[in-house]
Every structure is written in structure tokens, then in C-alpha cells.
């Protein structure tokens, strides 16, 4: 790492899932950025399976990548892959979720903040009272942090009670059924926080189907969610993350090191931003 | 099967139910309903009952095709993925290609039936075991859906498509009506046509059916095509509910569909089972999901309880196998 | 040595054994006789612990036993050859013979050499040549039967039960078996022998116990009883001569099947034959001589190398049984349970299985009433004994099951029928009925191919006989030429034809 | 099976392989390897070969138990979930309960074997179809793991546990050694013990095996226990690789394990198949996954290609079924 190597680096990125617009747009941004520097990119999809993700990293190491952008499906589980990559002198940057072990940098959203902001918004929209439910997701750290943040925000409202937490698996069709049941179970339900926009879209369909006045907030800023918010209706807010920026910054950190930078920030938190009917029109990932 | 037809010939539907293999699934349904009713006040509201039926409509429709396939002694693991693929391509036709929505719906049906025919062809003419064929086509369908859509959901369908998902006809949600009509159709096919008898015959004894002149290959082709068709119908309802094509929808739906069929009293080895049983199984599973939600059980525990209830139900009805 | 007293057994609500006694001495061959469904096999399954009796006692050498698993019976010195095949198709002869009692080395691993030696030894005693290392599925039926017998012999049992071991054997092979049985008898082994071939009973057995409908009828010395008396004990009445009279030969009757070439295997021998309206054409030959395969080829159910035939005027061999059905040719398969019946179906559903065309309204929906009427008619025509058309088929006796399959074809009005071993495992009474039925059918203009391994049956029933050897027809015998000598000569030495 | 035994009696292992049912899976392996070798330079490096084997070790180990179960004509859908549960509880014992890691490892084995016994008991004594039983226990195991851990992975195992996942012995990665030892053990059991014979006999003809005095119930109990045991062994390797208990690990691993068994030439209906075939199937699937990654195929397309290869492989070897 003393002297700058010649030629563009070979980049590998492993995603926790690609069945989600969030990561798909992240991948697009990566591809565009890599093209501008003439790098070859290998992308893999772990499908939420850490063991597969480790294998994916091993395969990429076989291809002699120089930079590994890691979007871990589980922070602890991926550690051995991080170590393997470091042993081979590969620069490792964690994106969106952190990884244990000697990662060079971590670029990620403030997930706890995201949960907090969404639920704060929800609580205020409900004027600080009413029954609220959480539509949970896959048990991974970022999601768990959003729930934590949400609960912290809800605790600040004396008049709000958290009456139910169910798992919509971040899947639109599953979330739809689960939300319908929640609405049945709690006739006075006034608000729902979904841990991501995929689940929120399902919840939105359920709320609209029930004809009830239930307010919905979420996290992500996915195009469909932003559209729905712009159109008005039950979906009032999503706390947007910036997947494209995350990967751009992550790649930047890695390149800096690749070109010889000795000191790079070990953690670069990317802010999240409230998107509501006010600013939805202008927002896009 | 034999019981059913026996009594039906000589008596009313009611009589046939009380003496038929449906009795156990029905008893299970009643017991679970009563338990849920005690545990949650909302359970017995008309609203909630319609809610349960509507939620089950998608997998309930998949379970119709699954019943045909299982009755012949096969299995179809691809239904969830085919449903997702059909819905995605249908949405793509409407949104990306800008064609009329009707063409999109026809496209969904075409995708479903074609995949079904592919499964049936490989099973019947390729002489390969259904479980492996449909495991492979599940991967293929899932992958194709993601490739086609680039992983993004495809939204922007014409608004009236939502009628299939959230519309009502005479106060009854459309998905429920679609499901019930398909069940009625399936009942007629299975109980009142020679094709239906041949489905049962193949599941009962394939060699004997073949040697006595039943066109086993064609029947197998047909049952998979039917399963593909019901996957497409499920895709239509799903599109109406989600107003988008979701390449990732329906993961593990095949397992719920199989559970419905066997909860309804069908033998997984084929030859025995009633389509009405599957309907009961669908409602039963819906009640379990809904009830556990209503009671507010920890979502992780819900799977455990669901597993135990399936075991119990199969254990109780096992004597008939 | 063996005493079974007052054995009672019910399956569900139906009692199938109403207090049966059986007493077998050391060093005797004891026949157990009775019509189909009399309860013979059930008695034997109770003896070896596979089925448990509801009541009654089993004593061996005076000692009370109550086996709950076959292993316990084996430990007590009992060995059995089951009526149903109990072989594993993908395992070899050696593996099958020692299944569940493998020999092991001190390390607990299989002692494969020792097992091979012992298996070769036992099969050698039976005087048959059975490949030891091929999967059982590749062997002929007779070879499989001998493996089955060897499996029981390898137990060195003191009480040996043989439940219809000869049904698939040729006379020569039966003689080998009898020689071994005599030798065992010398050594003091008690043998229970079940067979529907009365001449075999008289040849080998010392005493006979007769059952009728689950009732104990009596036990006699073979020496002191005649065949007529024995049949009367079994069926409760005297039987008229069992084969109906043959009609006059009609050589100019219409040819309904003209099989110009049937070649089962590439470069193998070639058969040709014709079937005429109103006749019964016998297919005779040793087991494994290719009769069933030839018949299946005609239906498109066997991948023969070449089939060139015209059926019912259509000059193209069918490609599948469903096509064959459309040409008007149907098969009564040799194995009812595996190939004929849908056991989960009712009688009605089995009979109407392949002819819904008759009952469909709008060419689509089954007219249940018409279906029931037709079924009842067909059942009556073949005299199926059953509580109702809706009775489940697995509750019927073997003979009645066979009649249900015949009724299926009668209902279909298929003018050409192939009966493969139509009376295998069927009792005398039912046999006579089936023979009469076949004659009635030919009188109505049906044409029948009858495959049979029982020479008397072939001689008594067939108007003409095709004799098979090694996969093809070597001779077609008519009228006076149909004798057991001529058939056996052709079946063992007939000349094969290799060109079409 | 019979082929194998036949030739083995008369000849060497090599001879047995060339004449055995293994030949087709082997040919498939060679063809796919050559194709991948052309497509990627790195493919044939020793490093990459060890890499492939190490990657496949976990599901490859699951496939051992799956082979036993499939040989008897059953199926075990619960292996992935049981592996996750065993790993989670084992981690919990080490981390949350603060017990020595050895106890944790024993705990994993206990959990695996107990679940296996539960599956076997329900199948053999409960007379319920294996596919349904293990579908239900899959739900149960998955749910229990999540309930136990609250959904969080459990990390903080003693460092030496990683030896099972990333350690090396004489230059060879430990997971590979564990896998190969288990395969060797399975080979001895299946080919050289009477228990192994009984496994094949039950798959070949259960009634006949029963009539011959094989204790069918006990053998069925045992094969599921073996499957539970191999799930636990997989959990140990997984723990070594992940250094944590992952309640959500192993989703759909059962499908890959089944694919390995049938790619190895076993009949899904039981009675036929060799454990060496499964090993070849495991390597084959590993090569497909690794090769498609190395070539840089779009991840969505990888599933499609994998599905097509499975279909092709099964189609080619179908004649033997
Ligand atoms: N498992 C069973 N369940 C119900 N009924 C049975 C069962 N096994 C036998 N039966 C009935 O018990 C009766 C006696 O059968 P069994 O097999 O002992 O007769 P068998 O004398 O051996 O006849 P065959 O000469 O045809 O072999 C028959 O009516 C048969 O249908
Ligand atoms: N080349 C061969 N390889 C393996 N098996 C063969 C071969 N030729 C014949 N057989 C066996 O011999 C038998 C020949 O069959 P087929 O059933 O047609 O004879 P059959 O005369 O009708 O005798 P059966 O009385 O058993 O019906 C089959 O069981 C088949 O498995
Ligand atoms: Mg009998
Ligand atoms: Mg034959």
C-alpha cells in the first residue's frame, strides 16, 4: 500500500439480498461509479444466508479482487470472510450494515435514528395519542436497531401505547396479511410503523382495504413509497436512506486506501432524512 | 374418494359430508375456531371471517392445483415462484410494454399454464420425479422473474386491477369469490368428469391405470397445467392486492399449499383426498395464522404452534392413509 | 410338534378365522387347503407373528408361544415362504436371502464371503442356477421364487411354511422343490404346504387340513381320501367337470388380430400369430418364455424391438394401452393387485375406469345413475360377490377381484381380450366360473388370448395354442395336437425363427 | 447399490466405480468442471478446489443424513432449520449460559439427534408421511431457534471454535476433513453393515423388508436420527465459519441437500443410490455455484442456470430409475 498500483482495481461487492429495490439501486450506483474508473466489478447475492455470503467472498477472493465492498447479512457471522479478505491484502469496506473483524471502513445509515425519526413523526401526526403497532422484519441488526429507535421515540409520548408487534418479513404479500390481522385484532389502531418500505407497501394495501384511518410510517425512501406519500393518504412518511450515496462513499473510502491513503475514517455514518408529503415530489434515490 | 362418491350417488351433499373423509378436517376446523373464538373477541365477527378468507384466497387458489397434482401422486414445488413470475411478467406487459391490462392478465395465465405444461412434460414424458422437476423449475421461475424485472417490483398497473384484490361483489370480497368459483369448478372436474376419475386412478395405482388404457401421460400433463393455471389465477389476485408485479413474492407458499392439501385429509402419496377438504384445510390454516395474530402471540412462536397443529392434525387423520 | 388351536381373527368388523385348528407333526408335509379367502395365509401369518390372533393358542413342542414379531418366530424355529413376494428388487439374491439376518464378522461388519458361500450352497440344494450378484429385479419370476424359497431354507427352520410356492414354477422346477421337501422331511422338519394344485397335494403331502370360509373343516390322511371328497370338503358341494365344452373349430372366422411380426429384443427371435373371432388362443410356455411381454407389446405397453400387427382392421400396432383400448383390445394383467385394480377405488369406480364415454352427458360429465346401472349389469354378468357396487376392492377375495377386472372389460365391450394367468391363485370354484365366463364371451363373438402356465387349463380351454420358447412362438398347435407332450416338447426344444 | 456390491465382491474399488451407477454423476462432474475451467482461469487452482470443497462442506454434510433418509424412501425437509437451531442453542450454551465450549458442542449434537429422533418417531410410529412431518418440524425448529435467541445472532464463542470452520490440518481445511470422514463413515455403514442393508431394503420394498423381519420402525428412527446428527455436525462447522449461532441460517439448505442426493444418482423413491454419488453431487453443485460466481454471471441468472443443470442431470440419469 506504499505506492499506488497501476491499473484500475478489481472490485467485488456482496449483497445481503438483491430482491429489494434498495440494494438494486445501490448496485446500479456501484456499476456506474466503477465504469468511470474502468474497474471490473463482481457482484453476488447472498439471499440472506451468511454461509452463502462467506462462500461468495471466498469465490471473489479466488478472482483476485482488490476491493471488497461488503453488505453483510449478519455482522458477526461474516467475520471470518473479513479476515480471509484482509489476509489476502484486500481492502474491505462494509456498506449499509457493519461487519465484525478488521474492516477498513464502515459506511452506513443511522438505522436507530431512522427508526426514531419515523416513529417520532408518527407520534406527532397522531397528536401524541392512540394505539400503535410495529410491523417487524428479518432479524438482522439494522432492522433491530430501527425497532429500538422506534420504541424509544414512542416512549416519549405518554398517550401512545404499542399494542402489537408482528413480523411482515419485509415482504409485501406477507405484510399485507399480517397487517390485515393486526387491524382486525386492534379495532382502535391509529398508527403503524413498518421497518422498511417493502413491508409498508403491503401494510398500505391492508389499511386502504380496511377503509380505516390509520397512519403509516416507514424507513427507506423507495420510489414506490415516495410516490404513495406524494399522493397523500395513510402513508405519511418514510425516513429515507441513501443507498447510492452509501456505496459511492464506500467505494471512495476504498479507492483512497487503494491509492495509498494511510488513514481513512473507520466509520462514516450517512444521515437519514424525513420524506413526507412536503418534500416527496422532489425526492429520489 | 370412494366414500365420497359412494354416498353422493345415493344421497345428499350433507349426508356425504357427515360420512365422508371430510369429517376429521371439519372437526379440526370447528375445534380450532372455538379455541380462537374464546381467545379473541374479534374472531367471530363477519368482518374477520371475510378477512381470513380473503387472506387465504391466494394460497387457497394455489392449493387447488396442488390438490390435482398430489392426487396423482406428484407434487408441485414451483407454484409460489410461478405465481411470482406470472405476476411480474403480467405487470411488465401492462407497465413496461404499455399494453392493455387485459393482455397483461392473459399474459399471466399464459406464463402459468406454460410453466405447468413444462413441469408436466418433464414429469410425464421425461419420466423424472415431480419433486425434483418442480424444485428445479422453482429455481428457474424465481430467477427468470428477477432477471426480467431487474429485482424491482413493477408498479403502475391500471387502477381497476385492484378490483381482483380488494373489490367486492354483493358485499363479498372478490378474491373470495374467485377462490370459491375455482373450488367449485375443481369439484366438478374431480367428481363428475372422467378426467377427474383418472386423476384419482393414477394416484391409486399408476400401472393399473396405464394398462387399462388411461392416458397417464396426458393426465399428468394436465394436472400440472392446472396447477400452473391456478398459480396464474393466484397471481391475478395478488396483483390486485399489491397493485404491482413482485418478483420475490410467494416464497415458501408451496409449503403452505401442501399443508392445506394434507390438512384437508388428502394422502400425500396420491389417490385419496377431496377438493372440499383442501378448502377446509385452507380455512383452517388461515384461522391458525389469523388467530395467533389476533391473540398477539410472539411471531416467532407462531411458527412453532403452526407446526405443532399441522402435526396434530395429520396424526389424527393418519388412520385413513 | 406344532399345534394351533381355536384361532380367531377379525379384520375390522369381519371375522375371517372362526376358531381354526391345525396340528402338524415333525417329519411330515402337511397341506393346508381351502378356497381363496378361506384364511390359509392369515393362519400362517399368525403363526409367524406377522398378524396377531384375537384368540387361540400356538404351541410348539408343547410350549406356549405368542409371537409379536417375525423375528421371534424365527428364533423359535419357524421359516416361511410368503405368498406375496417379499424380495427387495434392487438387492441381489445373496442380500435378499440374508436380509434381516446378515452374517457379520467379529467387527460387526458384513461377512459377505460367508453369506455368498452359504447362499450358493442353499440354491445348489434346490438344483437351480440363480445369479448371485445381480439385482433380483433382473431375474426371471421362477428364479425369484427360488430365491424366496432359499431365503426360508437358509433359516434351517424346524417348521417350514410354503404358501403357494409352486404357482410360478414349471413341473420340472416343482420336482426339484419336492425333492428338497422330501429330504427335509427325512430330517424331521415339519412342513406346511399351501397350493391350489391338488395333484401336487396328492404327490407330496402326508396329511391335509381343509378350511372353508374361515372354518376348520377337518384333517385327513392323504392316503385315505379321494380328490372328489377333498373338493367337496373345500367348497361344500360337488363340482361338475371344470372345463366347459369346446365349440367346433371355425377356421374361416374373421381374423381380428394379425400379428405379422413381434420381436421382443433386437436380433431376437420373431413371433407371428393370428387371433380369430370367437376363439380362445392359448399362449403356453415356461415361465419367462416371453408370453406376457408379447401380449404387452401388442398393447404398446412393452418396448419391443419391432411390432407389426393389424388389430380390428387397423393396420398399425398401438403405441400405448390407451390407443389399444380405442382399437378394442384389453388386458387382464397377470398381477391383479399391482397391475389390475385400483385398490383405493370402489368396485364401481374400478369397473368404469376406462369407459366413461358411455356415461358422459354433454360428453363431459359423468351420469352417475347410468354408471351405476352399467356397473351392476357387469357385476351380475361375471357374478361378483360383494355387498354393493360401492364396496372397496381391497376387501374382496382374490377371485372376486379378478372378476371385477374382467367386468371392467365386459362393460367396455372390448371385443379382443388378453387374459394373462386368469386363474392364478384362484380357487377351484371361482376357476370354473371364470372358464365358463370365457366360453360365454367367445360365444358372443369375443376373441380371447389366454396366457397360462397351467397345462391342463391350456389343454382344457384353448381352441388353438401358441407355444413359446425363449421369447418367441415356436409352434401353433390345433385341435388334436393340443396335448401336454406336444406342448412340452415345443416349449423346451421348439425351433426359433429369426426372420420376419 | 446392487451393482456396487456386485462388483466390489469381485474387484477393486476402481473397477466398481467404472461399472457402477456412479459413472453418470462422475461424467457430469467432469463435463461441468471442464466447462468451468475454460470459462475461468482460476478454476483449476488447488486453492479454488479446496475453496469449493470447503464451501460445500456444510450442505454436503447435511446431504449425508439426507441420503440415508431418501434411501429408505423418506425425505427430511427439516435439516436446515435443525442445523440453525442446534447452532443457536449451542452458541447460547457457550455464550449466554457461560458453559465450556465442549458442552456447547455436545448440546448441538443433542439438539440435532433429538430432533431427528422426533422426526423418526413421528414417521415410524406415528405412521405419518415424512414430507409432512419434517415440513412441520422445520417450522418448529425454525421458530424455536428464533424464540430462543430473540431473533439476534448469538456471537462471542471461544476463538478455538473457528478451527472447525477455518482451521487446517496438514494444509487441508478442517471442514473438508470433517465432511470426508463423515462420508467414509456413512460408506461403511451403508455398504458394510446389516443396518445399511436394511436401509436399502426398506427403500426397495418396505412391506417385503418388514415381512423378512427387518425392524422397519427402528431403522426409520435411526435414519432420521442420523440426519439429525449430520445436521448437528453441519452446525458445528457452520459455527466455526460464522463464529456465532444464527437462528436464521440454513433456509432452503434442504433443497440443495436433496439436489445433491439426486444429482448423485439416487432414486428419490428410495432403495437405490450410493453415498459416494452424493459426495459427487455435492461437489458438482459446488462447482456450479462457484463457477457461476467466478464467471461473474448475474446472480439472478445463476438460479436459472442451476435449475437447468439439475434438470439436465436428472434427465440424463433418469433411465436408471
Ligand atoms: N390385512 C387384511 N385386511 C383385511 N382383510 C384381510 C386382510 N388380510 C386378509 N384379509 C381377508 O381375510 C380373508 C382370508 O384371507 P387369506 O389371505 O388368509 O386367504 P387365503 O386362504 O390365503 O386365500 P388365497 O388362496 O387367495 O391366498 C380374506 O377374506 C381376505 O380378504
Ligand atoms: N434378457 C432378459 N434380461 C432380463 N430379464 C429377462 C430377459 N428376458 C426375460 N427376462 C425376464 O423373464 C421374464 C419374461 O417374461 P414374461 O413375463 O413375458 O414371461 P411369461 O412367459 O409371460 O412368464 P410369466 O408366467 O411370468 O408371465 C420377465 O420377468 C423378464 O424379467
Ligand atoms: Mg393366501
Ligand atoms: Mg406372464
TrEMBL record, chains B, D:
Q: Which GO terms describe its molecular function?
A: transmembrane transporter activity
PANTHER family with a match to the protein in the record: ABC TRANSPORTER PERMEASE PROTEIN YPHD-RELATED, ABC TRANSPORTER PERMEASE PROTEIN YPHD-RELATED-RELATED
Main location per the UniProt record: membrane
Protein species of origin: Fulvimarina endophytica
- One term under GO cellular component: plasma membrane
Topology relative to the membrane, per the entry? Answer: Multi-pass membrane protein
| Signal peptide positions on this chain | none
Localization per Swiss-Prot or TrEMBL: Cell membrane
* Listed name of the protein: Ribose ABC transporter permease
Q: Which UniProt keywords apply?
A: Cell inner membrane, Cell membrane, Membrane, Transmembrane, Transmembrane helix, Transport
Q: Which residues cross the membrane?
A: 22-40, 52-71, 77-96, 103-122, 128-148, 169-190, 221-243, 255-288, 300-317
InterPro entries, sorted? ABC_transp_permease (IPR001851)
UniProtKB/TrEMBL annotation, chain C:
User: Which SMART domains does its entry note?
Assistant: AAA
Report membrane topology: Peripheral membrane protein
Q: Lineage, please?
A: Bacteria, Pseudomonadati, Pseudomonadota, Alphaproteobacteria, Hyphomicrobiales
Q: What is this protein called?
A: Sugar ABC transporter ATP-binding protein
Q: Which superkingdom is the protein from?
A: Bacteria
Which parts of the sequence belong to the AAA+ ATPase domain? Answer: 26-215, 277-472
Q: Name one Pfam family in it.
A: ABC_tran
Q: Name one GO molecular function term.
A: ATP binding
The entry sums up its family as follows:
Belongs to the ABC transporter superfamily.
Alphabetically sorted, this entry's keywords are: ATP-binding, Cell membrane, Membrane, Nucleotide-binding, Repeat, Sugar transport, Translocase, Transport
Q: Where in the cell is it found?
A: Cell membrane
GO cellular component assignments: plasma membrane
* Family annotation (InterPro entries): AAA+_ATPase (IPR003593), ABC_carbohydrate_import_ATPase (IPR050107), ABC_transporter-like_ATP-bd (IPR003439), ABC_transporter-like_CS (IPR017871), P-loop_NTPase (IPR027417)
